[in-house]
Design goal:
about 450 residues, alpha+beta, Amidase signature (AS) enzymes, Hypothetical upf0131 protein ytfp, 8-stranded mixed beta sheet, 5-stranded mixed beta sheet, 15 helices, 16 strands
Length: about 450
């Protein structure tokens, strides 16, 4: 496996923040969808009424691509649901931030500065900052481990706990067994309290489209967590524990690094079904905040996520007659495509001069054994509305597929059926079609 970007995806679960906090700590995007948007049938439950399947990805676009596959109503999951996507931004938007006296970083001044920097970048991207009272959110998050929802964890695990108590980590067992201290009356009182807090928190969405909070207030070593696991884990969930309780969507995006190299992330939180709108703004913030994705050398991709769902444009790598100045370039420009950059493919391809092609064209072939070369291409961005007619004009033996670039990014691009390359001249050593046409012109002039 070469480790290309299209292979770097993972699923997790997120009840209190288990998808968002690790993402913040690892320079990753962590998407926690609206509750019920993705079926949890078959997932080992923690709090079944709150559990969500989450996505870890290198970019917001990648995370949404996974959500597009996962999303769907499941009749066999009683908590599954669907709803209309809520849209705002991404060019002009209002975002809430907690009052300064409510921001807590537990002494981590670098995380505090990184958060302030993320707020400034959102303002530079067109956002209007609105300071809000975080009290209803903080009071709601206290219910997750200090209220009857702990008893829901016990309800899910009680039979296994009684049969295999020794299989539990002592801290996990302590948390789960604390659920025995809540009565049915406590459960109703907790539900009433949460309903009141949810109604109170809704006022914020009248003033702002979403809220920006730290992904976590600080980061601890494993030794520190093992020494004080309950308190420190509670601290790490300060800005995440309330999200599922209040039926909110959330996406964590990278937002910089401490001086010691440890990542920092921020979470965009919004009402249910704002998942894609949050991702659209999160993609812009990610691009403005970081140079590389994850622990890779690959650059953060351009923010092309649209708030209503899929991207409105598609990037296409051209390798021959569609290059700038070449005879078929007009097929791109007449569809409103724009040149994004010059690039090279991953070293997995070979380029051939097709016989009898009019106008002259090359054929690009990916080598199964990896014995290829880096081939020069141009990456163009085309409105999605024109992509279908563009592909329809491609004559055989050429077609449209997915190309992997030298930096690991995957884009659409021209490919050739192998049968047509038998007996054709391999021009890979020249590095690209332009070099070949120059060499051919020079040879003809002689």
């Amino acid at each position: 496996m070469r480790g290309h970007r299209d292979e770097q995806l993972s699923l997790g679960t997120d009840t209190a923040g288990s998808g968002r906090v690790p993402a913040a700590f690892n320079n990753l995007v962590g998407l926690k969808p609206t509750r019920g948007l993705v079926s949890t049938r078959g997932v080992v439950p923690a709090c079944r009424s709150l559990d969500c399947v989450s996505v870890f990805a290198l970019s917001c676009a990648d995370a949404l691509a996974v959500l597009d596959v996962l999303e769907g109503f499941d009749e066999e999951d009683p908590y599954s649901r669907s709803g209309s996507a809520q849209v705002f931004g991404p060019q002009r938007f209002r975002f809430a931030v907690p009052r300064a006296d409510q921001l807590e970083f537990f002494g981590d001044e670098q995380y505090a500065r990184l958060y302030a920097g993320a707020v400034r970048r959102l303002e530079q991207l067109g956002g209007l900052r609105v300071e809000v009272d975080l009290t209803p959110f903080l009071q709601a998050q206290e219910l997750l481990y200090g209220g009857p929802w702990v008893a829901e964890r016990l309800a899910q695990l009680e039979d296994f706990l009684e049969a295999h108590a020794e299989a539990f980590h002592p801290v996990t067992r302590q948390v789960v067994e604390s659920g025995r201290g809540f009565s049915a009356a406590d459960a109703f009182r907790g539900a009433y309290r949460l309903a009141a807090l949810r109604r109170e928190s809704e006022a914020i969405w009248k003033a702002a489209d979403f809220m920006l909070v730290p992904g976590a207030p600080t980061i601890y070593t494993l030794a520190e967590l093992e020494a004080n696991p309950i308190e420190y884990n509670s601290r790490l969930g300060l800005y995440t524990n309330f999200v599922n309780l209040l039926d909110l969507a959330g996406i964590t995006v990278p937002a910089g690094f401490r001086k010691d190299g440890l990542p920092f992330g921020v979470t965009l939180v919004g009402p249910a079904f704002t998942d894609r709108a949050l991702a659209a703004i999160g993609a812009r913030l990610h691009e403005a905040s970081c140079e590389k994705v994850g622990a890779t050398p690959w650059p953060v991709p351009p923010a092309r996520v649209e708030p209503g769902g899929a991207p409105s444009t598609v990037q296409v790598a051209v390798v021959g007659a569609h290059l700038t100045g070449m005879p078929l370039n007009w097929q791109l420009t007449e569809r409103g495509a724009r040149l994004v950059r010059a690039a090279r493919t991953a070293p997995d391809y070979r380029l051939y001069a097709l016989a009898d092609a009019v106008p002259p064209k090359p054929g690009l072939l990916r080598m199964e054994d990896g014995h290829g070369s880096c081939i020069e291409v141009e990456v163009w961005e085309m409105p999605l509305a024109g992509f279908g007619t563009f592909v329809a004009e491609i004559p055989p033996p050429l077609g449209m597929g997915s190309l992997t670039l030298e930096n690991g990014e995957t884009v659409k691009g021209f490919i050739c059926e192998p049968y047509a390359l038998r007996g054709c001249q391999d021009i890979s050593a020249l590095g690209g079609w332009r070099a070949y046409t120059r060499a051919a012109a020079a040879q003809e002039a002689k």
